[in-house]
């Protein structure tokens, strides 16, 4: 399925409404921990057990209002939504924690 880059708040909201399970990586291109965990997020998006999860990336420098609306204060920040509602989050470059978060969707 892969990871989809969100370009607007409207795009983000439409995706939440359209998919039952959505995992979001709020990141900054210049921040080393975000760069370090990015391959793990992509790897998870390609795993069969997470095939029903829509994976999104939101660059907080391009969409600062969306990041603020979602309560992002530290990065990397991962948020899971189920049926358009928050279902969990994780702050930090923790691959095992990311997998545990995503397992809530399956």
From TrEMBL:
GO terms for molecular function: protein-disulfide reductase activity. The keyword Disulfide bond applies. CDD domains: TRX_family. Keywords: Disulfide bond. The keyword Ligase does not apply. Residues 1-106 form the Thioredoxin domain. PROSITE patterns: THIOREDOXIN_2. Belongs to the thioredoxin family. This is Thioredoxin.
């Amino acid at each position: 399925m892969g990871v989809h880059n969100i370009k607007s708040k409207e795009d983000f909201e439409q995706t939440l409404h359209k998919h039952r399970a959505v995992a979001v990586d709020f990141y900054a291109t210049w921040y080393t921990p975000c760069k370090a965990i990015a391959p793990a997020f992509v790897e998870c998006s390609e795993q069969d057990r997470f095939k029903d999860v829509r994976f999104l990336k939101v660059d907080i420098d391009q969409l600062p209002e969306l990041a603020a609306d979602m309560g992002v204060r530290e990065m990397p920040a991962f948020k899971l939504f189920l049926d358009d509602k928050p279902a969990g989050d994780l702050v930090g470059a923790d691959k095992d924690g990311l997998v545990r978060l995503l397992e809530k969707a399956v």
